[in-house]
Amino acid sequence: MSPILIIEQLLNGLQFGVMLFLMAAGLTLIFGVMGLINLAHGSLYMVGAFAAAAVAAATGSFFLALAASLAAAAAAGVVIEVFVIRRLYRAAHLDQVLATFALILIFAEGARWVFGSFPLYFDVPPMLSGPIMLPGGVQYPLYRLALIGVGLAVGCGLWWLTARTRIGIQIRAGANDREMIAALGVDISRLYTVVFALGAALAGFAGALVGAIQSVEVGMGDPVLIMAFVVVVIGGIGSIKGAFIGAILVGLTDRLGGIFLPEVFKLFMEPGAATQTGSALASMAIYILMGVVLVWRPSGLFGARA
Amino acid sequence: MIPERFITFAVPAGLFIIAILAFWTDEPFTITLTTRVAILGLAAVGLNIALGIGGLVSLGHAAFFGLGGYAMGILAYHAQTYSPLTLGPLVIEGTKSMPVIWIVAVVTSALAALAIGVLSLRTSGVYFIMITLAFGQMLYYFSVSWSAYGGEDGLSIYLRNEFPGINTLVPIQFFGLCFVLLCLALVLQARLRGSSFGLALNAARQAPARVETVGLNPVRLKLLAFVISGAITGLAGALYADLNRFVSPSMFSWHLSGELIVLIIIGGVGRLVGPVIGAALFVALEHWLGGLTEYWHIGLGAILLGIVLFSRGGVIGFLTGKAGPNV
User: Using the beta-carbon criterion (under 8 Å), do B133 and A276 form an inter-chain contact?
Assistant: First the structure.
């Protein structure tokens, strides 16, 4: 196990973490502000990826594809917010789970209907393709490095948006006391639509960015959705900072666990069994991390309320 | 308006009559469908104890369903390959006997429910939903990467397991077995609901602070409900695996957890036979809509949205004209 491999896996974990952050940020905002558990967030991720793949196939432009993913996911977000989600804010969690589960079924089958069951692919733009030499002699794909940069930039942007802008103040106030800010003349219903569309656009953006290095297919949002839930539980519901730290922790645990656990087990088991046990445990590593955090802090690292 | 007591007796009777009619008219496929209804209904009856009485929205009950399935799969696999299962110093012979498999399935899923419940019940509300979902997914990924028992491909069992005095290969006899277990679970739930434990659990859902004031521990009540619930769903998992003679990680899939909740909502939350009605409608929809179009999930999704947004109390709520169960 060379240091180069470790640095590579660290970067991979970081890259995976920032993409999870894009998903988890939307989930945690939507829960924090509207009190809604949105299972259909993974569908919005899928919508973004499919829109990007379709536009990339039609125009050949990666950046148009990214713009399309943002627009399509935000538009899908607005549509479901206005027609379905809006009626669920005051409903029980059970109703929210069920209605957003129904949306997943509709989105997944709709995508299968329109695009078929075969995975789609689109390429990384030429200016970002190929490896780059990092200081220390590590070769790393430029595109993945760019993803880390984009994720960090979005994180800073979100912090600026919530901490420094008027709409950010309204969002934070809406999370604390919706009646009070409605009384102050803020159109709460429009604010909710904006927050939902923002979360949806972030999810769609993540789907498009990841879609360029994986395949775009029906159901691609499900594993990411569940990992984003783990992130939100670890970070604490409603906290953007928590989502960021949780996402990086989960990303690193997942990627490093995959290479280190089999090695650790090889120290005291025969190699075949060690690889099997190690990789089986590695697939559970992030859930074990979640369990540990829960025992220590039931409302997450930065959660205010349970 | 139809009284709920009538529905409670009519629904299982109806299921039984359909199976018998299918037997007389020699339609084994319909019998298989009714068996599916009985088994899915049993799984959802299990979930209904946690969800309907205890108010615990578990989005991870596929974990117990899958554990039950794998309990059957692993034991039968060792029996059919004549290779005992060695766990360190412990050597376990495989078995094809259903009662033994059932006990193993129930105990395994009860222990898993205890472990998951202890951790998950440290929280409540939306955290609980996400955490149960995450634990279900954890077992899913474990089963995918654990290649000793087929990994992603799952395990096939060549012959259905045996029950003394019954030929389980005959569809109607296997249906009878599943139907009896479903009825036993329904009786158990009815008795639970009327018992002091059930009443306390009901109160723990509605007003945990008051329950605590009278000296009961609401978390412990919910944990016990969660364990009973997981055990019943695990038993259903073992039967489901036996019905298909196949287990795979898809039994752990979170879509299945979602579908179990769907079954309960369609029938009516907290209603005794709600899950059975839900299962019957679900299997019928799957069969008919699935025959009409490959994309039947769109229709299912639209129906679900309609139920959530516009109706209260599911089918039983509609039939009885009361939105919630009498408690």
Answer: no
Helix axes B98-120, B125-145, angle to 10 degrees: 130
Residues of B in contact with A283 (CB under 8 A): 138, 141-142, 144-145
Beta strands in B23-105 (DSSP E): 85-87, 90-92
Query: What number of other Cβ atoms are within 10 A of residue A116's Cβ?
Result: 11
Q: Do the chains contact at A284 and B295, CB–CB below 8 Å?
A: no
Taking CB atoms and an 8 Å cut-off, how many pairs form between chains A and B? Answer: 127
Q: What is the 3-state secondary structure (H, E, C) of B199-263?
A: HHHHHHHHCHHHHHHCCCCHHHHHHHHHHHHHHHHHHHHHHHHHHHCEECHHHHCHHHHHHHHHH
Q: How far apart are CA A292 and CA B282, in angstroms?
A: 38
Q: Is some CB atom of chain B closer than 8 A to the CB atom of A46?
A: no
Which of B122, B138, B308 has its CB closest to that of A98? B308
pLDDT value for A306: 40
Helix, strand or coil, per DSSP, at residue B120:
helix
Contact (CB<8Å) B125/A306: yes
Measured in angstroms, the CA of B120 and the nearest CA of chain A are apart by 8
- CA dist., res. B289 & res. B281, Å (int): 11
Range B217-243 average pLDDT = 96
Secondary structure (3-state) at A129: coil
Mutate to test the interface with B, among A84, A94, A113 (most CBs of B within 10 A): A94
Tokens for A200, please give them.
């949806």
Residue B220 structure tokens: 């412990």
A11-44 pLDDT tens trace: 999 999 999 999 999 999 898 888 899 999 999 9
B59 touches chain A (CB under 8 A): yes
Dump pLDDT digits (tens) for B15-42: 999 999 999 999 889 999 999 999 999 9
Evaluate whether the domain defined by A9-125+141-296 bears CATH number 1.20.1070.
Answer: no
* Secondary structure class of B327 (helix, strand, coil): coil
Does the beta-carbon distance from B261 to A98 stay under 8 Å?
Answer: yes
Name the fold adopted by B4-320. Answer: ABC transporter involved in vitamin B12 uptake, BtuC (1.10.3470)
Burial B223-232 (b: 16+ CB within 10 A, else e): bbbbbbbbbb
With cut-offs at 50, 70 and 90, classify the pLDDT of residue B326.
Answer: low
Nearest to B271 by CA among B311, B322, B201, B203: B322
DSSP-derived pairing of the beta strands B85-87 and B90-92: antiparallel
Residue B283 vs residues B36, B37, B115, B186: alpha-carbon distances, Å: 8, 7, 32, 20
What is the domain partition of chain A in residue ranges? Answer: 9-125+141-296
Q: Is pLDDT above 90 for B146?
A: no
d(CA B61, CA B64): 6
Average pLDDT (B241-267) is: 93
Mutate to test the interface with A, among B132, B135, B297 (most CBs of A within 10 A): B297
Beta-carbon contacts of B102 under 8 Å, excluding residues fewer than 6 positions away, are: B235, B238
The per-residue pLDDT for A179 is: 85
What is d(CA A45, CA A73) in angstroms, rounded to the nearest whole number? 7
The CA distance from B280 to A63, in Å, is 49
* Percent with pLDDT over 90 in chain A: 50
